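ok trying this again, last paste got cut off
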Amino acid sequence: MSRIGKAPVDVPKGVEVKVDDQSVVAKGPKGSLRIPLDSGLSVKVDGAKVMVERTEDSKQLRAIHGTTRALIFNAVEGVTKGFSKKLEIVGVGYKAVLKGRELALDVGFANTLSVTIPEGITLNLPDPNHVEVSGIDKQLVGQVAADIRSARRPEPYKGKGVRYADEVVRRKAGKSTTATAGAKK
């Protein structure tokens, strides 16, 4: 039995979890999310707890049991608190500008790169070098943050580029000039 899959999901006050035909719907103060269910899994809502159980012990159901429980947990967490990722833009002249549902990035290329922001995601730019991506869907928040980061990944020599706020960029030494080292006296 999956250790993660057999753990119940606690449902806080103000959140409603319903089980439809082949999906679970979590509604809370920030919105609602729908999680699709595999045909071999059953979900039971017992008061303030949600349990995910397998109907049979096949390899595929064992593999998806814990994943489904984690998706339900993330949906409950998302509709109550939400998720956010913070990005930093490092480099001289590098900046981000929000233009409607597009994020325009000036990150050292001749043209301005733009990233389309999907519905359900909000961007906050406290200054041109910091971007905060937030929303209720953990996967979508992470994907949008990864799309923004992929515009210009941080390079190892000067550290320029787009990085997560808590990311540590390992720096390389670079080339050293040793003109006198090879010359003989």
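PB: full thing came through this time. The chain has a mean pLDDT of 91.
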